[in-house]
Amino acid sequence: MNAVLENxxxxxxxxxxxxxxxxxxxxxxxxxxxxxxxxxxxxCLEGERGTALYVIDSGEVDxxxxxxxxxxxIIDSIGPGSYFGEMAxxxxxxxxxxxxxxxxxRLLEIDQDxxxxxxxxxPDLLRRLMRQIIGHIQRTDRAVIHExxxxxxxxxxxxxxxxEQEQLxxxxxxxxxxxxxTPLTSIRGYLALMNQGSIQGDSLPVAMNSITRNVEKxxxxxxxxxxxxxxxxxxxxxxxxxxxxxxxEALQGARxxxxxxxxxxxxDIAPDVPPIYGDQQGLVLAIRxxxxxxxxxxxxxxxxxxxxxSAGDEVAVAVIDxxxxxPAEVQERIxxxxxxxxxxxxxxxxxxxxxxxxxxxxxxxxxxxxITVDSTPNKGSTFILYLPQP
Length: 390
Ligand code: ADP
What we know:
Elements: H1 3-16, H2 22-29, E1 32-37, E2 42-44, E3 52-58, E4 61-66, E5 72-78, E6 83-84, E7 98-101, E8 105-111, H3 112-119, H4 123-196, H5 203-230, E9 238-241, H6 243-258, E10 265-269, E11 276-279, H7 280-296, E12 304-311, E13 314-320, H8 356-366, E14 370-376, E15 380-388
Parallel strand pairs: 10-12
Antiparallel strand pairs: 1-8, 2-7, 3-6, 3-8, 4-5, 4-7, 9-11, 12-13, 13-15, 14-15
Helix pairs in contact: 1-2, 4-5, 6-7, 7-8
Adenosine-5'-diphosphate binds next to helix 7 and helix 8.
């Protein structure tokens, strides 16, 4: 070895094995040979017997393990000053990982036999090197255990999420069956009576009316669901809209869907509200969901207020009720698909699938708007849809 190369070797070994004395480093350097590897070359192969330790002088290598399904997983990449293949020095072992050059690499290779020849007369070198290598293995182990713990936590969270989704799905199926069964039972009852000939004359239009309403209810439910799954059944048409038209259509839709003619509604549109640029169908659906909820979750039929006004560079549509309100801790979640607030112990059963607000949020986003909620249990809720002024 020429002097420059030898100096390089000594510096590199010193970097890789800082615990060794200068004399030890010199001894070790006598067993080291330079070697160049090409990009993609496998320097060690997992499962093969290894007889050499390598120190990286330049370039980087990947440490790769094979998963059960024969997939390669890169667990780390190391570069100059790092070493690998150290297990070969601890006895007759096979390689635990494949080491592959990421680019052209210069390495120092120290073969077990050459090392032993140098180390046999130098027990201090042997002891110190082993101590350092074992320390390195222990640190790597700790790092792997830490990594495993982190992954374990992430897995636990993913399981909890899955379990919650599963619960939501089950609850949703139960709710959906209920929601469909009520109108179906009514239709079936009327049809049975008609088949028997028990409904005639004046009763017929009453029965037909009820059947139609129930069919419409089911169509409404399935439309909501389809809508949710397809999210945008047809491309939205953006036009300039008169907000009053949107609000009236939404209010009529909500009244019809809930058959609520009782709850008093005030509609207050500030005169300075400009026309808005948006998609009518989407905005009607969003505001209708607010109004339906305001009716539904005000079981005492306390009045509902709908207000539209300019708010800075936005237009606000507020739906205000004095109903049962929403506990603070679930207010963020009510926009999630199928999420419904548990109302144990209440005298009321509130129908619904838990998708109205999901659709409202989707529509708000589609119109570059946003929604805020302000709600206090037993006092009431205010949902506001903010839309950009054109
Ligand atoms: P649904 O009303 O069909 O359950 P939504 O997505 O419209 O579904 O609403 C989700 C949940 O948010 C409801 O189950 C209800 O608990 C709560 N919520 C929404 N609006 C109101 C409101 N105005 N007052 C009280 N609770 C409400």
